[in-house]
Design a protein that fits this description.
There is one protein chain. Helix content is about 35%, strand content about 15%. The protein is of the alpha/beta class and about 250 residues long. The chain has one domain (about 5-235): TIM Barrel (Alpha-Beta Barrel), CATH 3.20.20.140. Strands 1-2-3-4-5-6-7-8 form an 8-stranded parallel sheet. Helix 5 runs parallel beside helix 6, helix 6 packs across helix 7 (about 185-200) and helix 7 runs parallel beside helix 8. The N and C termini lie far apart (about 35 Å). The structure holds zinc ion (ZN) (2 copies). One zinc ion (ZN) binds near residues 9, 11, 77 and 207.
């Protein structure tokens, strides 16, 4: 029986989650988590975007309820914006985070519009992506890991497809984790064997938008057992979290 002790991808009312911070903390404790991270959507997410004010409020709400038995961390689910791997979390913001997560999302505001048609719209709204786009996506993720202190790549393979091998090797050498995302584990599964072979570390993320889903990993556990993912390489099960300097 696999024991879950961490969940590093939880949404709150500060973006599109349904629960406030206090409800999330109570649920995390009730589930028996020893560590968790709030990971709300980022500065250029449509309608639900992060602001400096929201980030401050979120951090304050966590520090007011500080508990050694159940450690609360502040993250953000940043958006990769273009083929240069730029993200929408400003340095002033990520320096104030305990950890930084990034992924691809199609609902991001326009900004300077660079690569928007190919990177955001094509990846976001079409099914069969050509090899050349997958190659450019892979490079974009690698650049993001090299440019910013990214700790977690969220739901790999969900929409913006990538080639796993080089990305996993880059993540490993930079101390970045690959997320085992409960909502989207099926998009990582075809690459999971390659990820294991690369030696990269994994991290658990329920992507819960409701308190009752915090710490629930039924689909992820199935994948862990099916592919024999080493438990001592999974943060949230048997591996301690180490984050990059911000
Ligand atoms: Zn996401
Ligand atoms: Zn999410």
């Amino acid at each position: 029986m696999i024991k879950i002790i961490g969940d590093y991808h939880i949404h709150t009312k500060f973006s599109d989650g349904k629960s406030d911070t206090d409800t999330v903390i109570a649920a995390a404790k009730k589930t028996g988590l020893k560590e968790f991270a709030l990971c709300d959507h980022s500065y250029r997410s449509w309608f639900v975007g992060m602001t400096d004010d929201k980030l401050e409020k979120s951090k304050n709400a966590l520090s007011c309820r500080h508990d050694e038995q159940c450690r609360a961390l502040q993250s953000i689910e940043g958006n990769i914006l273009n083929f240069d791997g730029e993200i929408d979390v400003p340095p002033d913001a990520y320096k104030r985070l305990d950890m930084l997560s990034v992924g691809f999302h199609r609902f991001v505001t326009r900004g300077d519009g660079r690569d928007r048609k190919q990177f955001i719209l094509r990846n976001g709204w079409t099914e069969n992506l050509p090899d050349e786009l997958i190659e450019k996506n892979t490079k974009a993720y690698i650049k993001a890991i090299e440019k910013y202190p990214v700790d977690v790549i969220c739901h790999i393979g969900h929409r913006a497809k990538v080639y796993g091998k080089r990305l996993f090797e880059c993540a490993k050498s930079n101390g970045c984790h690959i997320e085992l995302n409960e909502k989207h584990i099926e998009t990582l599964e075809p690459m999971l064997q390659i990820a294991i072979e690369s030696g990269v570390k994994f991290i658990l993320g329920s992507d819960a938008h409701r308190a009752e889903n915090i710490g629930r990993f039924d689909r992820v556990i199935n994948a862990i057992e099916k592919y024999n993912v080493p438990l001592d390489r999974i943060v949230g099960i048997d591996c301690q979290l180490t984050v990059r300097k911000k």
